[in-house]
Specification:
This protein has about 140 residues and is α/β, with parallel strands linked by helices. About 30% of the residues lie in helices and about 15% in strands.
């Protein structure tokens, strides 16, 4: 895979409630101050409490996060867009940004027992961490 050059990344999904919020928290930890990280959705709702819970398990605090609308993001400030939708139609950003698509099933399945739901959230969290760590290895800062 070729290296990617970016200083800012936007994580996108529909509700900006779980996948993109977890990706934002993980990316901030992995990239630290080197990359500006944000998340948004096309139909933002609220940060899912189970996302906040499973991220706290790995030392990442989402309690201050809120769901943002992709329309509120200035596309000229984004170098890389990562869409996380699997079965839904992901929002689009009209920008000259590089794009990656990491389809992840929505972990929010309220009809399942809480322990099973937490397992879904943990699986998405861990998959996102692996992808973001691999991305960090591909990132080439501009000289």
């Amino acid at each position: 895979m070729e290296p990617l050059h970016f200083h800012s990344v936007l994580m996108l999904c529909v509700a900006n409630s779980a996948r993109s919020q977890m990706a934002e928290g993980l990316a901030r930890q992995i990239f630290a101050e080197d990359v500006v990280v944000r998340s948004a959705g096309s139909k933002p709702t609220r940060v899912n409490p189970l996302a906040t819970l499973v991220m706290a398990e790995v030392g990442i605090d989402l309690s201050g996060h809120r769901s943002d609308n992709v329309l509120d993001i200035d596309p000229t400030t984004v170098d890389l867009v990562i869409t996380l939708c699997a079965d839904e139609v992901c929002p689009m950003v009209l920008a000259d940004a590089q794009r990656l698509h990491w389809p992840m099933a929505d972990p929010d399945r309220p009809d399942e027992p809480r322990a099973v739901q937490l397992g879904h959230f943990r699986a998405v969290r861990d998959a996102l961490r692996a992808k973001l760590e691999a991305l960090a290895g591909r990132r080439q800062p501009e000289a």
